[in-house]
Amino acid sequence: MNPPENITKSWNNFITSIKENLDKDEIEAWVNRLLLIRFQTDLIIIGGVNQFFCNWIKEHHYKLLKDHLLTCFTELQLDPEFDLVIQVWKQNQETRPVNEERIDGEKLSEDGLNPLFHFNNFVNGSNSDIAYAAAVAVGDNVQDNKYNPLFICGDVGLGKTHLIQAIGIRAKTSQNGLRIQYTNSERFTNEVINGIRFRNIQDVRNKYRYIDLLLIDDIQFLENKESTQEEFFHIFNELIQNKKQIIITADRYPREIKNLQERLVNRFNSGMVARIGKPDFETRVAIIRNRVEQMKVPLNEEIIDFIADSVKTNVRDILGILIHLEASWSLLSQDITIDSTKRVLKDVLNIEDSPLTVENIIKFVCGKFEVKISDIMSDKRDKEISKTRQIAMYVSRELTGLSFPVIGKHFGGKNHTTVLQACKKTKEWLEKDPEINQTVTTIIRDLSI
C-alpha cells in the first residue's frame, strides 16, 4: 500500500527544499536516506538508517526539518505545534504506509515515554546521586508516595529529561496497570489553550486527573501563563489528594521561577526537591565511555579525556560532539584524532583549545609568586614553594574540576592525599588571611576571563 498522492508530493517537495540548504556531502550522507514513516496533522515520523544517524539529525538539523515540513505540507493543514519524531528504519523491511498503526513492530507510545531513556544508561555521579536515588525509589514503588511531588532541577543538558523518563519506564515495566503520562509544560499549555478555544477543557482535565503517575518536564515555561497555571494547580491538587505520584523538572529551584503562583511554589516545595549539578571530570569521562561503548566508536583515552576536559557543563553538548565524531567516522570514513576532535569542538560548540589547563594554571600562579615551575614540580618543601604549590593545586581544582589524582599527576606525580591537603590548607588561608584571599580571588578571576 502506498502513501496518498498528496502526501507523497509534499514529501518530495520537502526533500527538494532540504537539499537546497545543504552541501553535497550532507545530502549524500543522510538526506537521500530519509523515509517518511508516518504522517498525521499533529505528528510526523521520519525514518533513518540507524540510531546514531537519527541522533545526528536531531542534534544538528531538527529545526531545519521542522521548518521545511511546515512549509512543504501547507496544503495538508499541518498543526503548527506538531511533533516531529525521528526513528530508526531498517532498510531490509518493506516500507510501511504512513497510515499504519505500528512502526518496526512497535506500537507508538501514547504515554509519551521514550524507551531509550532508562536507568541502565543513565551515568550517575556525585552531581546527581540524590536525584538519582530518589528517582529509582519512586520508579520502583510509585504507590509509596514518600517523595511526592519529586521536583528535579538543574541546568540545561544535565539529564533531567532522561531521569524523569527513566522513572516512567521503570514504573511501567515493574508495576502492571499503572496509568502513566509524560508531557512537558509547553505541550500542556497548548492543550489548555486548545481546550479553552474549542470549549473542551474538561477533556484536558480528565486526561490528567485519572492517571497514577504524572511526569511533567520544564515546568518553568508556565511562567506568566495564568490560565495554564490555574488548570495545573487543580490537577496537581487532585492527584496529590488521591495519593497519585507527580514528578516535575525545571531549570531552577521552585522559588527562583518568576511569575509562578505562590501556591504552586509552596506545593512544589512540599515534597522533595533534588538538584542535578554539573558533572565532575570523572563523571564526564564515565558518560563518554558509556556512550562510546554503545556507539562502538574508536575513541582512545586521550581523546576521551580531552573531550571531558573541554566540555564541562552540558552533557547534551558532550553527546552532540560524540554523534558528530561518529558521523564523520561511519558516514564519511574519516579517522578520529585529537586534531579532528579539536575541529569538531570549534565548529560545533565554538570551543578553542582550552587555556584552563593545569599546566597554564601552574605557569600563571608561579608567575604571580615568582617561583620556578621546576620547583613546583619538585619535592622541595621551602615555605614559599610549598605555599605556591598548594595554591596552584587549589586553583586547578576550582577551575578545571579535575580529580585529586589527576591534578597530582600534573604536579610531578604527587598523590591524591597531597592535593587534598593542599586544597584544605588553601581554604583555611582564604578564611583567615584577607591578603591571600584577595590574591587567589584575583588569580581565579584573571584565569577565568
How are the SSEs placed, and which strands pair?
Layout: H1 5-19, H2 24-29, E1 35-40, E2 43-48, H3 51-72, E3 83-88, E4 102-103, E5 106-107, H4 129-140, E6 150-154, H5 160-174, E7 180-184, H6 185-197, H7 201-209, E8 213-217, H8 226-241, E9 245-250, H9 262-269, E10 272-276, H10 281-295, H11 301-310, H12 315-330, H13 338-349, H14 358-369, H15 373-377, H16 383-400, H17 404-410, H18 416-432, H19 434-448
Parallel strand pairs: 2-3, 6-9, 6-10, 7-8, 8-9
Antiparallel strand pairs: 1-2, 4-5
Structure notes:
The chain has 19 helices and 10 strands. The chain has 449 residues and is α/β, with parallel strands linked by helices. It has 4 domains: 101 residues, DnaA, N-terminal domain (GMP Synthetase, Chain A, domain 3, 2-Layer Sandwich), CATH 3.30.300; 158 residues, Rossmann fold, CATH 3.40.50; 67 residues, Helicase, Ruva Protein, domain 3 (Orthogonal Bundle), CATH 1.10.8; 91 residues, Chromosomal Replication Initiator Protein Dnaa, Chain: A, CATH 1.10.1750. It has a 5-stranded parallel sheet, sandwiched between helices. The chain has a 3-stranded mixed sheet with strand order 1-2-3, with helices on one face. A two-stranded antiparallel sheet has the order 4-5.
